[in-house]
Amino acid sequence: MGKALEFLQQEQVNRAACGEAMHQLMTTLHPICRSITGDGVRQSLAILQQHIPLTIHEVPTGTAVFDWTVPKEWNIRDAYVKNARGEKVIDFQQSNLHILNYSTPIAAQMPFAALKQHLFSLPDQPHSIPYRTSYYRESWGFCLAHETLLKLEEGAQEEGDYEVYIDATLTDGHLTYGELILPGESEETVLISCHCCHPALCNDNLSGMALSTYLAKALIEQQAVRQQRYTYRFLFIPGTIGSITWLALHEAEVEKIKHGLVVACVGDEGSLTYKKSRRGDAEIDRAVLHALAQRQQPYEVLDFSPFGYDERQYCSPGFNLPVGSLTRTPHGRFPQYHTSDDNLTFVTPAALGDSLATYLAVVDLLERNHYYCNLKPKGEPQLGKRNLYSAFGGKKDAKASEMAMLWVLNFSDGSHSLLDIAEKSGYGFQLIAEVASILEEHDLLARMPDGR
Ligand code: ZN
User: Fold this and answer.
1) How far apart are CA 452 and CA 220, in angstroms?
2) How far is the CA of 196 from the centre of ligand 1 (A)?
3) What CATH number did the domain enclosing 429 receive?
4) Ligand 1: centre distance to CA 338 (Å)
5) What distance in angstroms lies between residue 171's CA and the mean position of ligand 1's atoms?
6) One domain for residues 129 and 81
7) pLDDT digits over 28-61, tens only?
8) Residue 139 and residue 151 in one domain
9) CA of 303 to the centre of ligand 1 (A)
10) How far is the CA of 328 from the centre of ligand 1 (A)?
11) Rounded distance between C-alpha atoms, residue 178 and residue 49, angstroms
């Protein structure tokens, strides 16, 4: 295992430090009003560029991308509702969730009854501001806590007209996304994709951006020590339209994607959840399931479904890529989801650090999941004369290592990967891979070329 991965994976101190750093990054990104296009995305990606060498791409409004069209670019500077006394009763400067994302500009006076048609709240969660969007239907609106709405309603009798002001633009511009390619020995690619289009929401959105950034940092650190086997391609894209746009513009490169993960909701304290790729039995599916099982902590596995995040696009039938999604509590299953309660206190450094360690374990498994060939396949090789029993002598798990050695020798016939052998034997991948490298050093195994 590479030193960088070992460092992050095994040292609790570093895991905690990374968790803190990811949380800090989210704190910096939190106030920025992001959307599927616009300066909020650009500002956010510029902050990530202070950590990793992201390339920023701009795709013009009107570009045809499969069945979709890149929309107009939206930018907002200010928005509020004032009562007749001139007091701001809803203020975008207080929370960027107050604006219906993609609202068209307006400056008007209107009675409460007319305004109310444009107000959104959650009666069941009266203290929370909901997150709403209207990307593909031109409209305007404000989101507010239900308790605030009730107060406005009470006072509406005495009040005169309300002043509604939204200083926004919706014009021809660009869709912006960030991309980082870390070339490996092979062009075969691991895709890491996260969405970057939500405003002040932490678990859904910012946690994925922070984890992807720190995963890229770890791989860059690792690369300084040893070249990676795979090429890693990180995408920071607006949800749905971003992945559709990227796929449409990179159709020729898509076949290089051998494994992929969509990163989101990785900062809450819930247990980890893996949503399988549409294929269901891709190497990435098996790698994640193995890594989760090795943690000896509760986790959940979901079959693919055609809703959720950008795995929907990567796993659309025309691509059917081996892309799953590793989250903690899945979207929509925590009450804070798409509300102002998905805030900086809902996500914790400990959970972020734990999620990153799991992603690193999956990457490490993919990197080392080679096929080997037994060079002495007729009968068992005599291990004693090669001091292979004593190679594990004194180790607590010496017996397990011996057994693992026999499994690796027997099934290294060129058609079983180390993960196949780990699954068959019930031993952890780490042990199987460690044993394989010792057997290789003793000329009992030879690694088969990759890309077979
Ligand atoms: Zn969302």
Assistant:
1) 27
2) 10
3) 1.10.10.10
4) 6
5) 24
6) yes
7) 999 999 999 999 999 999 999 999 999 999 999 9
8) yes
9) 20
10) 14
11) 9
